[in-house]
Amino acid sequence: MKSRRPPIAVVSMSALADPIAGGRAGGVRIQPLLTWSVFACLSTVLNLSVLLPPLGAYEIAILKSANVAAYNQAVVGFTSSMPPDTIFVEYDLKGDLSVGRTQAARIRASGANLVLAVGTKAAMAARLEILDIPIIYSMVLHPAKYDLKAPNLVGVTTKPMIGQQLGILRTVMPNLKRIGYLYDPNKTPPLPAETTAQAQQFGITFVERQVRSTEEVPPALRELLPDIDALWLLSDSTVLTEESFSFLLRAAFDRRIPVIGFDPEFSRRGALISFWIDPTDIGREAATLALALLPGTTSTTSKSFTPRQRMALNLGTAHYLGIAIPPMVRSMADEVY
Predict the structure, then answer these.
(1) Would you place residue 9 in the very low, low, confident or very high pLDDT band (cuts 50, 70, 90)?
(2) Alpha-carbon gap, residue 115 to 104, rounded angstroms
(3) Model pLDDT for residues 163-207, shown as the tens digit of each residue
(4) What is the pLDDT of residue 141?
(5) Would you place residue 297 in the very low, low, confident or very high pLDDT band (cuts 50, 70, 90)?
(6) For 78, what's the count of Cα atoms within 13 Å in the CB-facing half-sphere?
(7) Are the C-beta atoms of residues 264 and 334 closer than 8 Å to each other?
(8) Which residues contact 318 (CB under 8 A, 6 or more apart)?
(9) CA distance 86 to 287
(10) How far apart are alpha carbons 60 and 111 in whole angstroms?
(11) What are phi and psi of 64, to 5 degrees?
C-alpha cells in the first residue's frame, strides 16, 4: 500500500494577517500553532539581523602600547575614518611587551582582517607574533631602530618639518645660533644629517650631550646650558620625566634660555614654543592605508606623509625672557598661553 504524503502548506501574507482565526493558503488551512511558529522564526531572524555584523564588514584589531591621550587620539582618528560597519576590537598592552605578545597571539587566532598597532611596543609585539594578517603601525618615533620590517607590516611615519620649525625659531629669536639637546643613545638616535644640514642653512648649530641614566641629566644640563641659546626637548624617557621636566625648565629659565617642546602641554607649563603633530591626523592617515590594504594587498614599505604642523606659544614666558613674538608667528599658533 502506498503511503499518502501530507499536503505541503504554502504560507501566504494573508494567512499571517490573521493568526487567531487561521487563514487559507493554496486551499490548506494554517493552524494557529503553526502560524505562531512562523512568527517566532521571523522574529528570531529579525533579531539576529540586528545583532550580527553585516556581511562583508571588516574586523580590525587595535593593539595599543598604553592607555595614553596621544594613542587614544590616534585611535579616534583611525576609527572615525573607517567605514561605519567596521568592527573594532581593542587591546591594551599597559606598557608591557610580554602582555602585548600574549594579546597579539590572541589576535592571530581571531578573525581579524587587519591589525592597527599604536606605539612602539604594540608594533614590536605585532611583528613578533602576527605573520599572516596585515599590520599597520603608527605613533612610532624611530621605526628603523626597532627593525619593523616584515612582508605583512607597513607603517605610517611622520616626516618632521624641521625646516619650517627652524624658520619660525629664527623669526622669533633672530640671534639664535646654538640649540642644545640631551638624549640617551640607547633609546634615541642622534639627529639625522638632514636635520643638521637644514640647521646650517639658517646659521644654527645643534649641540648635544649624551646621558645614559636619569642621574646624569642634571650635570649634563649644567654643562650644556652655558654653550647654547635654546634648549630643544626630545621624546626620550631617560631625559624627560615628570620630575625632570620641572628641573630642565627651571634651570633653563635661570639662565634666560628658552625651551622648545614637542607637546602643547610643555608650553602650557612654561616652554616658550612647542611644535607637534596631531595624533588624530596620524590615525586618519593610517585609515587611508588600511582601506588600501584590506582587499588583501600588502606592501613592504612604510608610508611617509607630511601632516599639518601645529604650534603652541607661551606669551608669559616670552615676556619673562624679553622675547617679542611677531604678530605673524602669533597668528600661526594653534594654542596660546
Answers:
(1) very low
(2) 9
(3) 999 999 999 999 999 999 999 999 888 888 989 999 999 999 999
(4) 81
(5) low
(6) 34
(7) yes
(8) 272, 324, 325
(9) 11
(10) 9
(11) -105, 140
The Cα-based distances of 126 to 169, 177, 232 in angstroms read: 39, 43, 32
What is the number of other CB atoms lying within 10 angstroms of the CB of residue 32? 12
* 59-159+279-305 is a CATH 3.40.50.10540 domain: no
Q: Taking residues 143-169, report their average pLDDT.
A: 88
| Class of the domain covering 162-277+309-336 | alpha beta
Distances (CA, A) of 165 to 197, 233, 291, 304: 14, 13, 32, 19
Q: So where are the chain's domains?
A: 13-51, 59-159+279-305, 162-277+309-336
**Are the folds of 59-159+279-305 and 162-277+309-336 the same?**
yes
Give CA–CA dist 272/181, Å, rounded. 15
What pLDDT was estimated at residue 323?
97
The secondary structure of 178-201 as a DSSP string is: EEEEEE-TTTSPPPPHHHHHHHHH
**Highest mean predicted confidence (pLDDT) among 30-34, 91-95, 297-301:** 91-95
Beta carbons within 8 Å of 18's beta carbon, 6+ residues apart: none
272 and 317 Cβ atoms separated by less than 8 Å: yes
Grid cell locating 309: 604642523
Task: Tell me the average pLDDT across 256-279.
Answer: 96
In single-letter form, the type of residue at position 222 comes to R
* CB crowding 256-274: b at 16 or more within 10 Å, else e: ebbbbbbbbebbebbbbbb
